[in-house]
Each structure stands twice: as C-alpha cells, then as structure tokens.
Amino acid sequence: MSIYAYLKKDHEKIKALMDKIKVLGPEESSERSELFNQLKATIITHSKAEEKAFYDPLKNHPETREQVKHGEEEHQQSDQLLSELTDPSLTGSAWFQKFLTLKESLEHHIEEEEKDVFFDARRALDGEQAEFMEAAMRTEKQRQVADSSISKRPNI
C-alpha cells in the first residue's frame, strides 16, 4: 500500500465518524460523546503522523512546500475546533454548530489533500518513497497510540 491509499483510508474513517455524529443531531447523548471521542483521537493521531511521515518529507520539494504549509495550518485550525468542542460549557445547538464547522473544514482539507497534494506528491516522489512513507506513518500512529495509553495510566 502507498501513503496515498493509507491516508485515503484514514480520511474515510474520519468522514464516517463525522457523518454518524451529524445524524445524531444537536441532542447530547453518550453515543455522541463516544463517537466524538473516537473522532478526536483519530484526527489527532492522523494529523500528527501525517505531518511527520508525509508532510515533513514533502517540505523538501518546491512543488509541494506551500501545500504542506497550508495543510499544517488547516491541522492547527482543526486542533483549535476540537479543543473548543471539548469545552464542557459548549452544549446543545452551539456545540453542534461548532461541530458542523469542524466537519466542513475537515471535508475541505481532505478534498484538497486528496486532489491537489496527492497529485503533486506523486510527481515529486517515486513509488518506493510513497511505500516508505506509508510504513513510516503506520509506525508513527502506533507510537502515538502507545504514548497516549501510557499517559492515561494512573500513577502507582
């Protein structure tokens, strides 16, 4: 598998989680909270691994440098929205409107990445590099999950 197929698979998971949350609507529920927590963890892990395994190497190529900068800015915007959505004082329809903003932002980011960034990255990288990036991203995601589970353990 190449980095492109791997990222697309992650993107599909993110979109599916967002669609499930949207269907639940503005009413708070344990199901919505659980889905949002899954979405948040997926986005954070994906973004950090993507920046390290995919974006960092693309910064060395003139045809992708600006797109990577733009993608990182969009990741920061998503992080900010996720933080706001985690605030317990944001509830009901206000929470849901903020969630819809996140959903729209992420769908825009995914579309740009899959269309524009992937196109230019395919011109800048060969197939072997793309496969290496996929392996690096897999490893980075596993490292992040392990790190987050360590930080969640109670102190003994």
TrEMBL record:
Query: Could you tell me which CDD domains the record lists for this protein?
Result: Hr-like
Domain annotation Hemerythrin-like: ranges: 3-118
Which Gene3D superfamilies does the UniProt entry name for this protein? nmb1532 protein domain like (1.20.120.520)
Name a Pfam family for this protein.
Hemerythrin
Region of interest: Disordered:
53-81
Q: Where is the composition biased (Basic and acidic residues)?
A: 53-77
Kindly give the InterPro entries that the UniProt entry links to this protein: Hemerythrin-like (IPR012312)
Q: Which PANTHER family does this UniProt record tie to the protein? A: HHE DOMAIN PROTEIN (AFU_ORTHOLOGUE AFUA_4G00730)
Protein name according to UniProt? Hemerythrin domain-containing protein
Q: Which organism is it from?
A: Gilvimarinus algae
